[in-house]
Specification:
This protein is α+β, with helices and mostly antiparallel strands. Helices cover 35% and strands 27% of the residues. The chain is built from 1 helix and 7 strands. The radius of gyration is 24 Å and the shape is elongated.
Length: 156
């Protein structure tokens, strides 16, 4: 009888350990899914903003306020806009849906100026090309994965 009770306790401990492992693996899988979904939404917003810049080629005044997600050149002493929790110039991109989950990523486009080399390897090609820093973010919801992507986009 004592041996049976000891075996029962051991089997219970093994069962509890297995349940704990399965629960942890389920949480890891859900996090991976959320992160993947957020990454794809942020990447879609980044591509949408790049297409906007390529089509419109905006040239806002340095330090100008953000209009429809397009901002003037940031002051060098200012904190990055994407890191400022109080910054409200984000522009909603097209919603990305996957089944019952729908995400609306956001982006900002920061004009960096028009004094960049047009062809970095060829100095004689001119230094009057425009550059933009595009930042896109996506949040799958409360207490879920947040993804932020950034690119430097050359125009003209």
């Amino acid at each position: 009888m004592v041996i049976a009770l000891i075996l029962l306790v051991i089997m219970t401990l093994v069962g509890l350990s297995a349940m704990r492992t399965v629960t942890l693996e389920e949480k890891m899988t859900a996090q991976t899914y959320d992160r993947s979904l957020s990454f794809q939404a942020a990447e879609a917003a980044l591509r949408e903003a790049e297409a906007l810049v390529e089509t419109v080629v905006p040239t806002p005044v340095s330090g100008a306020a953000c209009v429809a997600g397009v901002c003037g050149e940031p002051p060098t002493s200012a904190a990055p806009r994407w890191a400022d929790a109080s910054f409200a110039g984000w522009q909603d991109a097209t919603a990305v849906a996957n089944g019952a989950i729908s995400l609306t990523p956001q982006y900002i486009v920061e004009y960096l100026g028009n004094t960049f080399p047009c062809q970095p390897g060829t100095p004689s090609a001119g230094t009057d090309c425009k550059r933009y820093r595009i930042t896109a973010r996506s949040n799958a919801g409360n207490d879920r994965a947040v993804v932020m992507l950034q690119s430097i986009f050359a125009a003209e």
